[in-house]
Each structure stands twice: as C-alpha cells, then as structure tokens.
Amino acid sequence: MYNINEINGEELESKLSQNNTIYVVDVREDDEVAQGMIPGAVHIPLQKIPESIDQLPEDRELVIVCRIGMRSMNACLFLKQHGFEHVSNLSDGMLGWTGEIVI
Q1: Which end of the chain is more exposed for a tag (fewer CB within 10 A), N or C?
Q2: Other CB atoms closer than 10 Å to residue 39's CB: what's the count?
Q3: Does any domain span residue 103?
Q4: Cα–Cα distance list, 47 to 26, 27, 52, 55, 92 (Å)
Q5: How far apart are the C-alpha atoms of 25 and 78, rounded to whole Å?
Q6: Could you tell me which residue ranges the Rhodanese domain spans (predicted)?
C-alpha cells in the first residue's frame, strides 16, 4: 500500500505563499471548476489523469484537489503507482479551502 501525504487547505495556502514550485492539480468536473479554482491550479478531470500523466512534472511537489478529498486521494494513489514520489492530497478539498479562488 502507498503512503499518501495529506495536507489541509490552510497548510496548502501557507505553502503556496512561500513556494512557487508546488504544482496544484484540480481533478473536479468542469461544472465544479466553473465555481472557482485555486490560483495557478491546472484542471485535469479525474478520468483524464491516466492520459495526461505525461504532462505532470515528476520533479515537483504535486498537490491534488477535488471537492472533499476523495477523488483526489484516488488520483494520488494512481500517481504513486506510476512512480510519482512527491504527491499530496488536499484532505479537506475545496470545501476546506479558504484562500483566494479564480473563476
């Protein structure tokens, strides 16, 4: 089994303010993303992660985001299985995000 690092919205917001190398991937559906995303996040719906894996940087810390943290955990497990070492799940999802959003 893979050990997936989890961070909450407050921790991610703090990390983003200190470090611009974090790569945030939002795996929600189009209609969810239309309500707002974390600034700088890349939108790749969960079902498209397998075909988009070559577009993800293996040398950067990835933080995967969904609405409540379940789909993003599945994406993290998939990425870990495919050799990505620096993957974290936003455990409380966008529901726990209190930072800025962009529409």
Answers
A1: N
A2: 11
A3: no
A4: 12, 8, 10, 15, 20
A5: 13
A6: 18-102
Query: CA 18 to CA 26: how far, in whole Å?
Result: 20
Distance, CA of 10 to CA of 18 (rounded, Å): 13
3, burial (CB in 10 Å: exposed 0-12, middle 13-18, buried 19+): exposed
Residues classed as catalytic: 66
Q: Which DSSP symbol is given to 55? A: G
pLDDT of residue 1: 67
Distance CA 35, CA 84 (A): 29
The model carries a pTM of 0.95
Q: Is residue 51 part of a domain?
A: yes
**5-7 and 87-90 beta bridge pairing:** parallel
Contact indicator for 64, 90 with CB cutoff of 8 Å: yes
